[in-house]
Amino acid sequence: MSSDPACRPGRSLRLRSLLIGIGALISSLVLLLAAWVVRIEWTHLADSEAGLTRARRLQDVLRVAEMASRERGPANGVMGEDLPTPAGSLERLAQARERTDAAFDALHAQLPPGEDASRHLGDTRERLKAARAQVDRIAAKPAPQRRAGELRQAVSDMFEVIDDLAPVATRFTDEARQAAPELAGPLTAARRAADLRELAGRLGSLFTSALARRQVLGLDERLAIEHLRGRIEELRQQLQRSTSTLPATPQVAQAMALMQQRYFGDTQAFIAEQLRIGMSDGRFELDTSGFAARYVPDMDSFLLLRDALLEQALTQARAERDRAALRLSWAAAGAGLTLLLLVSVVVIVNRRVVQPLTDSTAIVSALAAGRLDQPVPQHGARDEVGDLLRALELLRQDSLERQALERERQNLIELLRDQSNTDFLTGLLNRRGFMALGGAQLPALHRRGAEIAVAVFDLDHFKLINDRHGHICGDAVLDAIGEACRQWCRRGDLVSRYGGEEFVILMPDCTVQGAWQQAERLRNGVASLRIEAPGHPAPIEVTISVGVATCRPGETDLARIISRADTALYAAKREGRNRVRVYQEPAPGERSPA
Ligand SMILES: Nc1nc2c(ncn2[C@@H]2O[C@H](COP(=O)(O)OP(=O)(O)OP(=O)(O)O)[C@@H](O)[C@H]2O)c(=O)[nH]1
After folding, report:
1. What class of enzyme is it (predicted)?
2. What is the value of pTM for the model shown?
């Protein structure tokens, strides 16, 4: 039964391997799926971060452009005022330049060094420096010496600084759009608002030359002003269209309304009036500073709108980043929990099912092999596996009882067998046991060429002992003779109480000479005994007569050998007892003594 493969413990090990394999496979699939989801969410998060970073950079670029644009007011101011330039104008210009430089520094700090945008901004600053030097050269001249051409050039150089920032702004807008497409709307609209501020500023700057010299506007200035007004209107419409598609925020709505009211309401009428004067007699009521004081504040409505749109974009980007981070956390936590659950399931199934099955298989195999010493493990749960283990324990207990009963039965059989072959008085073999064992030994002894002898001895006048001292004393004497046999016979000799007071000894590996010596030793030993018998004060002395015969080659009939030894025994009795006689084989033609 133990050879049945189903009983081998290996089965259960394979079941555990299967469980671990399935667990590992499902875990791998879950991990793969989780890695895929986490990767997607990670990409979303990275894109959102990138979109936010680019939106902030765009905000900084637009701030640089705003500051450079604001710097044009004080620059135009000092170029429009005669020497000595008022300290207040110089102070305003210095402060404006400081603010522009600070905005440049802040933007530079955001960019990794060596990046294209960083290098480009470096070039733009050089261009700004050159434009400022040109402004300072013109402002250092007396007003009459300042030519219209150089004034326009100086203004144009300042414009170019702003134009130079446009590619950087476009680049960050594109990068933000690629990383987070939802930012495209508000960022594009914010750039349009910034462009409107710039164009409005340029429009004002075109009046600078005529205002400074209180002259009519030149044809190219008039054309440029009309061109800019057209561009401004066009941009306004684009801005309206783009903001109308965005999710409306109160800040953007308010900034749009303010822009419409202030710049495209009051300020447009003011510009139209200045244009009319510039096209008629050039007698402006305001100088450049007065013009700037009236015109510039209304342009701030563009900046309010730009900032509101940028804030909307940044808020969107931050919200998207936070959502992506949350989704990423959920995905990672979900994957971790699923894995934990899987591992728990594998551990529980292993502990509740596979391990008990493994133990059960080992126990069943042990039971099948008859090994009952292996205890069945305790399993507290009231489930099928628990029932199985409890049933196995019952089976084991039952088998243990059966085994004990079987052992008892075997012992009893052994005992009975021994008793049936043993003489109850001396503990030696009885006749039956002697004949069975001795008869079985002879063939093997012959096969290895051993010499075999048999001795038969009988107590002398034993009847007298019984008669004089009683049967119990006779039994004690027989018992003492048995002890003497154990003491004086060799280890391999087979000794038996053959019947009554007659004993037979089978002596393997014994020549006739050896047998005679052995018999003599035994006879002397018995004669020297002083046997204590119950109820008998004096020790009893006995003698024995012994007959010895040897086994003929190949002879296996034990009874015949005993018969020959018996013949020798009778001879010993006849000759006076207490002696050993060896059976003499009759000469050819002579009759057997028996
Ligand atoms: N106490 C006792 N006596 C036994 C037992 N078996 C046989 N005897 C006695 O042994 C005696 C044998 O006597 P006999 O055959 O005449 O032989 P003997 O008296 O020994 O004389 P020889 O053999 O000629 O020397 C008988 O009295 C039997 O009763 C036994 O188990 N116990």
Report:
1. transferase
2. 0.59
